[in-house]
Every structure is written in structure tokens, then in C-alpha cells.
Amino acid sequence: MELITHSLTGVIIQILCYKFLIFPINLIVTMVFAFFSHFIIDTLAKMTYHIPESRKEDKFWLIWHIIILISSAAVIVVFIVPFWLGILFANLVDIWDWVILRTIRNRKKRKNPESNWANLNKYFIHNIIDWIREKPCSWLSNLNYRKYGIILEIILIIFLSILIWIFL
Ligand SMILES: [Zn+2]
Which range marks the domain in which residue 46 is found? Predict the structure, then answer.
């Protein structure tokens, strides 16, 4: 799913952990739960609008992504202090796969196309998430190319925002 959904999940996990657990267990449980929340949220993302490639010529795609980008930035600005730990760990899988690993792999590919750059593909954590989506959760309908798939993401964002508002 999108940065905003993962970040809000990280925020609510940290709020609840700090509310109900003592130091340093609250820190550890926040990191573990926020990290693994990414697996659950990305599995649910099967039922949301999420085209793998960018479609800048498609107005719907463009507007949706501008809204997501601005609201994600707003959520991070508002919650980064003091909820950076939850936000960081909720997005760690994307940071590792799409920022760190992809950059290393593409640089390797660019420098030497003959090298074994494709070997790095096995270190993508999203491979595990893809497996969860295809095997144990194969019954979830795939709405990645359906525009109305944004509905589940919006519902989830509203639900998480209400939870944060209640517990903060
Ligand atoms: Zn992800």
C-alpha cells in the first residue's frame, strides 16, 4: 500500500505500545509489530488500486498519486516527532527493497550488465509478501488494476486516523 497507510499504522502501533507497555519493551514491540505490519498491509494491498508501473498520462492515476503524495508528506510532518520509530519500522521493508536494494542492483547493472546483478533479486523482502498474496491469501480478489480499489485504502486511512484520534 501507500506510504501514508504504512505510516499511520506505525503511528497507532507506537501509541498503543507506549500506552500499555513499559520501557524498553514498548520500544521492542513497536519495532517488531510495525515491521511486520508491512506484511499485513501489503497483503491487503492486493485489494487496492496499485498499478506496478507509473501511468502519468492517465488522469485518475495522476490525481490519486498526487493526493497520496501530499497526504503522505503531511502525515510524516505531523507525526514524525515523536512517532519516528513506528513510522520508520512500518516502512522499513519499502526502504530496504525500493530504496537501498534497488539502487544497489541498478548501479551494478549499469556498471556491468554482464555481472550477476539479478542475484540481488532474491533479497527483496517483497518476495515473501508476494508469496503470502499468491499462496495463503490467494482467495483475496486482486483489485490492483480496478480504480474502485482506492475505496479500501481510503477506508483504512480513515479507520487508522480515527484510532489515532481516539488513543492519542
Ligand atoms: Zn511494501
Answer: 3-91+129-167
Residue 24 lies in a domain: yes
Q: What is the pLDDT of residues 99-134, one digit of tens each?
A: 999 999 999 899 888 888 888 899 999 999 999 999
The answer to whether position 99 is within a domain reads: no
Distance 93 CA to ligand 1 centre (A): 6
| Contact yes or no for 8/62 (Cβ under 8 A) | no
Within a domain: 35: yes
Q: Give the distance (Å) from ligand 1 centre to CA of residue 1.
A: 6
Ligand 1 geometric centre to CA of 5 (Å): 10
Q: Which residues contact 124 (CB under 8 A, 6 or more apart)?
A: 97, 101
Ligand 1 centroid–CA 42 distance in Å is 6
Picking from 2, 35, 30, the residue whose alpha carbon sits closest to that of residue 16 is 30
